[in-house]
Amino acid sequence: MRWLLLASSTIVLSWLVGRSLARRRRRRSLRVHFLQKGHGGKSMVGWTPTDEHVDAICRKLSADVVVTSGEDLPKDAVDVLVAAFPTREQLLQVKNSIRALFVPFAGFPPPTRQLIKDMGLDRTLFVCNLHHNAPMTAELAVALGLAACKQVFEADRLLRSNDWSARGIPCDGVPEPLPMLLLQGKTALVVGYGEVGQRVARIMSAFGMQVLATRASASRVELDKHTTVHPPADLISLLPVANIVFLCVPLTSGTSRMLGRRELEMLPKGSVLVNVSRGEVLDEDALYEALCKRENLFAAGIDTWYNYPATSKDIHNTPVSTKNDFSKLSNVIMSPHRGGAVGLQETELARLSAIAEALNLAAEKNDVRAMPCQVDVERGY
């Protein structure tokens, strides 16, 4: 009986091993190339993997993922190209083998999108990106909103000069307190109910606010837990009831300058605006004028701007606008596009892990379309 059980176990084990090996033989290796220094000619744009980044990712990858890296593409075929700004020549070089373009950060660069469309790859090439920094961006959005609502930096500035007038003690001769917006019981509008917008909505709901949102894919009004989600077409009807507005949409042809003078004038008196999207989503002149007038718009917290440093040499002397001096306005909280938390250890570890997880999933399923965060090339997000 013992010999019979041993023989049976040996047969079963041999079958399982053979099946595993057969499955591995059927599963082809996923060939991945990390394009380094692919900035599209702009050295301060996006993120490019260093040798240390690639090594860290490789330590997390399965044996089915074969990795190359460098400024030049390998002579062998490439299944997945990890790059944000590939050139036409580079895409032509791998056109017959490439199955996916992996943008290693949030967003989809418009020049790359246009290049893919011009080359006719938009119908066959799978494009994905990352949402690894959505928690960081959402947290900064809320921080900017709170700082603007409570005029934190203006009160800080006054107290640093020993001026307590912002407190507003009700005594003769004491000025009126520095105004603040109470959030509880008010309405928050989240424009763009994606990975960032959903997190912002949950936080604002916890403050006791009624939360409304717009989502590009919504075709009708629907309730998502504590948030009422509307189609984009409802934005105009939502602005008049929004005490604080968070812009969390990607930059596309449909969102460019989606808020201008007309839209800002629809906001109720004493409202606050936060932009962690892209500068072009919010009309610059309209924003500046509204902040100067201080009628409907009480304050704003802005993380994305209209003018950026071209190179690392310019980071200490580049204004956020070449037309309007936002720095002189006390009712705008200015942030130098920190929402992505680029370069911070926690963010970069999250980025590397997210890249590895996506590539492992594609290798395991033998399908690049198994990778999360797919980008619709036509829509641009």
Automatic annotation (TrEMBL):
Protein name (Swiss-Prot/TrEMBL): D-isomer specific 2-hydroxyacid dehydrogenase NAD-binding domain-containing protein
Entry keyword Transmembrane: no
Ranges of residues in domain D-isomer specific 2-hydroxyacid dehydrogenase NAD-binding: 143-339
Span of the signal peptide: 1-22
Keyword Nucleotide-binding annotated: no
Keywords: NAD, Oxidoreductase, Signal
SUPFAM superfamilies: NAD(P)-binding Rossmann-fold domains
